[in-house]
Predict the 3D structure of the following.
Amino acid sequence: MSDDARDDVPRVELTPAAAELLRRLRADHGPLMFHQSGGCCDGSAPMCYPAGEFRTGAADILLAELAVDGVAETVPFWMSRSQYEVWSHTRLIVDVVEGRGSGFSLEAPEGVRFLIRSRLVGA
């Protein structure tokens, strides 16, 4: 697949369940953001925070500005640069599954957690 074709593939997308959860979280917490690191505590789970609560810097890459129907603003999706190096060839799909996630992510009290599914770009 050419680089131009890769640019047409969204780097990050949401399942309908993830979009619905984001609408609920937005109503409760205001504007949101995601950050995904490769750290030991949060592993490969995307963390959802109130926008601006997690400070990003040179070690992070903005992968997407996710548009969610019913949410006025986009939801930025950040990833640590080191994690991106491992996953740069994939499309990330943000989904929701039952179970407790990290206590730092906004969905933790909901009894569900965000989860990343991935698909090779071009697959």
